Amino acid sequence: WMNMFQKLVEFKKQHKNTIVPRKYDEDPKLGYWVCTQREVYRKDKLLPNRYTLLKSIGFEWDGSKVKNQQLWMGMFQKLVEYKEQHKNTMVPSCYDENPKLGRWVTSQRRIYKKDELDLNRVDLLNSIGF
């Protein structure tokens, strides 16, 4: 258990969060282990010392946030691909090739301007010249 916990600590150092996808290509065992910890916690069977360790690193207990993060990252990747093709991130709100991407970018700009976007997401968007 401690070996996997250490891997999670390293993941957090690198990604600034504990949201490991269930199917994490770089370390599939870590993704499965993290999901298992959430499940054990929901069933109220997580040992107190393990709960304390996970809590100490800001473990994300809510799996729905994980799904949200995966969806967001998927759209971000589509934006990166758009930028590679068009040399900018100015996706039209009514983008015929991918209407969902157009709506997503419009939404991200609105949230960004309101200063309500998660800082990690702001950093990612800024890294591609959003």
UniProtKB/TrEMBL annotation:
Residues annotated as signal peptide: none
Helicase-associated domain segment(s): 1-59, 70-130
InterPro entries: Helicase_assoc
Superkingdom assignment: Eukaryota
Protein known as: Helicase-associated domain-containing protein
Provenance organism: Fragilariopsis cylindrus CCMP1102
